[in-house]
Amino acid sequence: xxxxxxxxxxxxxxxxxxxxxxxxxxxxxxxxxxxxxxxxxxxxxxxxxxxxxxxxxxxxxxxxxxxxxxxxxxxxxxxxxxxxxxxxxxxxxxxxxxxx
Length: 100
Known about the structure:
The protein has helices spanning 15-25, 30-37, 41-54, and strands at 57-60, 63-64, 91-92, 95-98. It has one domain (15-98): Orthogonal Bundle (Arc Repressor Mutant, subunit A). By secondary structure, the chain is α+β, with helices and mostly antiparallel strands.
């Protein structure tokens, strides 16, 4: 069974402008942003990568819930798969905020 195609949502501003507007109010992770902007997390990560490269968004690194390791050197916006120190998969995703 196939899902019926739905038309894309009408927008008055660009997706990246909408993401920046949300991040101006509160820091968020990709999951929260995807709900606010109504895009998939995969699409949000693609936009966040570009916003981070342009210097308009700041990343608060992901952290391991088991040992506390912080992924400071990570360049990608995505959540890491497992901790390099303790190999746990219980990881808080990175959070993002707009640079002031």
